[in-house]
Specification:
The structure is a single chain. This protein has about 120 residues and is of the alpha+beta class. The protein is built from 3 helices and 5 strands; from the N terminus they run αβββββαα. The protein has helices at about 5-15, 75-100, 105-115; strands at about 15-25, 25-30, 40-45, 50-55, 60-65. It has a 5-stranded antiparallel sheet. It is elongated and about 60 Å long. The protein starts with a helix and ends in an 8-residue tail after the last helix. The relative contact order is 0.13. The mean pLDDT is about 90.
Amino acid sequence: MNDFLKKTIIETIKKGNIELKRDWGMDTYFVLDAAGKPLMQYVNGYDSGMYSLTINHKTIANIEWYENAKKPMTKEQSDMFEILNALCNRYTELAKLRHAQQAMTAQEQNLVNFLTGKDQKVI
């Protein structure tokens, strides 16, 4: 994968919203823009050893990798795992923020509303 493309993908992940769908032996990450429009999809087929990245409904990378493989990773495999790591980190970051938001007091919510320009008052 081109290094500039990989960097752009990772930067997009860091700014986007991440949704995760878990199935048996497979996690699918969806990267959404601020309006909720899907930008990319990453299938982490850890059980089958198959990993794929789809952008704009086109599969741009497809790799096969197994944990017990004796061969060193190729550049494409390494790139795909860097992208997966960015997805996992962003998903965890957003999950922590959602949890913190749910645990806010009314006073904290009023401060957030003030800082974000919302006129709502929470009692």
